[in-house]
Specification:
Elements: E1 27-30, H1 34-45, E2 50-53, E3 65-66, H2 68-80, H3 90-93, E4 100-104, E5 112-119, E6 165-166, H4 223-229, H5 233-238, E7 245-246, E8 252-253, H6 257-265, E9 273-275, E10 278-283, E11 286-289, H7 294-299, H8 305-319, H9 336-342, H10 347-357, H11 367-380, E12 389-392, H12 398-409, E13 413-415, E14 420-426, E15 432-437, E16 442-444, E17 447-451, E18 466-475, E19 489-493, E20 503-508, E21 520-527, H13 532-543, E22 545-546, H14 547-553, E23 561-572, E24 588-591, H15 601-614
Parallel strand pairs: 1-2, 1-17, 2-13, 10-19, 17-24, 22-23
Antiparallel strand pairs: 3-7, 4-14, 5-23, 6-13, 8-12, 9-12, 10-11, 14-15, 15-16, 18-21, 18-23, 19-20, 20-21
Length: 670
């Protein structure tokens, strides 16, 4: 399912909507990324009064997903974000008492850098794209890392923004599933629903193309090649709502902590998932499919019979390697790559195990880490499909919203486009007492949770951040063509040069609801050593051919054609210890942004650790109560459950509230 955010009309809420906000909460959560959203849901589920706010106009922070126009608008926002004006500073000085001091928060998000956009596909003159302002009449041949001038400003109708003050209403019926262990819905059917996502009024892109010259294109002999020529920039613009582009590229391990949490908390009912259909390998300039199951291994044409037996024997050992310490005891200090060589695996098998099964680095991964990663991969096979991975329909950005909905169901209040100017700290105790928002309203709470990017430079002056290099590509065909064009693939490309990292490539088809028909959405991710373009462009050139280049050469390309590309660097704040932050009050807890890993284990572990630190002894995200077991009287007083010791009782605002716990198939409404 997906969430439909509606803009609140002026007659429903006054301009100073903060006046209607309560001033007392148990927990204030700042930022709607995945760990913050999980924590907000857990706190609300345990009975805490939660206010969840975000200075952005969309859910998810750096975990968000955007339509194509929304992504371009997001790029513009990062260039035009001027922060809170100086005139607003005076509004909170009077709210600080003599026994208190203020800790200002960051006025501008600096977690995204080095953004570069390239458009390679030709413009279709018949569509008269220039008339609607979708692309410039004289496209630039140079991509800028500053994006100072918006080249696309009138191509899209003004869309509704996410609501500023959203307290989710309740949904209707839900059919309970018989399976008690797995309520996670995994679908392989192609959806035809269109998802409405946030997108702003302005967008920006640079085109790198010879552009308007299409009359000299060579005629293709087959229908497939002709289809490839039909993908133009104007089509991408027209179908922009078909795209749901993730800022962070991740997959869910089928036996991972996030899947377990989704099932345990029943949040899985709010989303749909698809199986990743294949795992690929890049070796000797070719893309090959990696066998995952026993049947795949013995049916593989890439392996000899001897290699098949060697691989099965090694994988069987990895499943219970802890029981055979003598096999790896002498290699604990060695790299996993050296251990594989010592086991006399062929170079072919070494490559498959290292890059496509363990998915680890050749140099930095130890033997124990490699064996653990291989075992985790094998244990995840077969739970939901032929590979260990799932992908959320409509993108990774759905997951934070699912937990936001759970928080709202249990009374959490949501407020987007709501900036926080400072924390109010008691000088004597050193604890944070309140926040002051951009309206000057003081909101008191016992605990405060915030995402790292909201902290000021002074607070983070001692922090050494890592960076993630990201690329988002739109292509016209799959990396490895098969009979089915609906493949979801993951590929690890080994380092191109020494001292560089391997690059993770995730290819999504249109049935994931992340791109338009006849295109693929490709995500590239690695740890940064340079700018994102410098890190990832060599891999892009190995796997794809720019559309403009194939047009000029007038030849048929065997590689997928690259239609559009975005490069950017994202801050990786994972692994930062609390002591690294300067002057952080004891009741303020910091969540990190996305890490570079493939799964979501770090975010889930961080959320659970912080929750137990704040509320020791409380259960983390327990299953919601069965609405049929909740008993009320007419005066909203809880009734004693006669003869039923395990009946759950709670206060309810209306008779519709309990139904919301069993209604995952409805859209959220504000």
């Amino acid at each position: 399912m997906h969430f439909l955010h509606r803009q609140l009309s002026a007659d429903r809420f006054p301009p100073r909507m903060a006046d209607s906000l309560p001033t007392e909460f148990d927990v204030v959560v700042i930022g709607t990324g995945l760990p913050e959203s999980i924590l907000a849901a857990a706190c609300a589920r345990s009975g805490q009064r939660v206010l969840h706010i975000d200075s952005r106009s969309y859910y998810g922070g750096n975990w968000a997903s955007f339509s194509f126009s929304g992504l371009l608008s997001w790029l513009n926002e990062y260039q035009q974000n001027s922060g809170i004006g100086e005139e607003s500073i005076a509004t909170w000085q009077d709210s600080i008492h003599e026994t208190e001091e203020a800790i200002p928060l960051c006025k501008k998000d600096k977690s995204i850098q080095h953004t570069e956009v390239f458009c390679y596909t030709r413009q279709d003159m018949e569509d008269r794209v220039e008339d609607i302002g979708a692309v410039p009449k004289n496209p630039s041949s140079v991509a800028s890392s500053t994006l100072t001038e918006p080249l696309i400003s009138a191509a899209f109708p003004k869309e509704r923004h996410s609501s500023d003050f959203a307290h989710y209403e309740k949904s209707a019926k839900h059919t309970q599933k018989n399976e008690t262990e797995i309520s996670l819905e995994v679908t392989d059917k192609e959806e035809s629903l269109e998802k409405e996502k946030y997108c702003g009024d302005k967008t920006s892109a640079h085109t790198v193309s010879d552009g308007d010259k299409d009359e000299n294109n060579p005629k293709e002999d087959n229908t497939d090649q002709q289809k490839r020529n039909r993908i133009t920039y104007s089509q991408i613009i027209k179908e922009e709502r078909r795209f749901n582009i993730d800022l962070v590229s991740k997959l869910l391990y089928s036996q991972g902590s996030l899947i377990d949490l989704l099932i345990k908390s029943n949040v899985s009912r709010y989303a749909e998932f698809k199986n990743v259909t294949r795992i690929l390998a890049f070796r000797e300039g070719k893309v090959e499919q990696v066998p995952c199951s026993r049947a795949d291994v013995f049916n593989s044409k890439e392996l000899t019979m001897v290699e098949k037996r060697m691989l099965m024997k090694f994988l069987t050992f990895c499943l219970d390697y802890e029981q055979h310490p003598d096999e790896y005891q002498d290699f604990k200090q060695c790299s996993f790559s050296e251990y594989l060589k010592a086991k006399k695996l062929t170079p072919n098998l070494q490559h498959f195990v290292l890059h496509s099964i363990a998915m680890t680095s050749e140099t930095s991964c130890t033997t124990l880490d490699g064996l653990k990663a291989t075992k985790n991969f094998l244990q995840c096979l077969g739970r939901f499909g032929n590979t260990p991975f799932l992908f959320p329909v409509y993108g990774q950005g759905e997951i934070p919203q699912c937990f936001c909905r759970m928080c709202a169901v249990f009374g959490g209040i949501y407020c987007l486009r709501h900036k926080v100017q400072c924390l109010v700290v008691d000088k004597e105790s050193g604890r944070c007492k309140a926040i002051i928002d951009h309206f000057g309203q003081r909101i008191n709470a016992k605990y405060f949770i915030m995402e790292d990017s909201y902290l000021s430079e002074e607070t983070c002056s001692s922090v050494q951040y890592k960076q993630i290099s990201r690329a988002v590509l739109i292509t016209d065909q799959s990396l490895l063509k098969t009979n089915s064009d609906q493949q979801i693939s993951i590929l690890i490309v080994p380092p191109v040069e020494a001292q560089t990292c391997s690059v993770r490539v995730t290819e999504l088809c249109s049935s994931t609801m992340t791109c338009m028909k006849d295109t693929y959405l490709v995500h590239l991710t690695c740890s940064s050593s340079k700018t994102a373009r410098e890190d990832l462009e060599p891999v892009t050139q190995k796997l794809f051919t720019p559309y403009a280049e194939t047009e000029l050469e007038k030849e048929r390309s065997t590689k997928p054609r690259l239609l559009w590309a975005l490069y950017f660097n994202m801050r990786d704040s994972s692994g930062i210890s609390r002591s690294s932050y300067n002057g952080l009050p004891s009741n303020v807890f910091v969540c990190s942004g996305p890490d570079c890993g493939l799964g979501n284990e770090h975010a889930v572990k961080q959320a659970e650790t912080l929750f137990q630190e704040i509320f020791p002894g409380e259960e983390f995200c327990p299953p919601p109560p069965n609405p049929e077991d909740i008993i009320y009287d007419d005066d909203d007083r809880l009734l004693e459950a006669s003869g039923t010791s395990d009946t759950t009782m709670a206060k309810q605002e209306s008779s519709e509230d309990s139904k919301n716990l069993e209604s995952p198939e409805k859209q959220l409404q504000n």
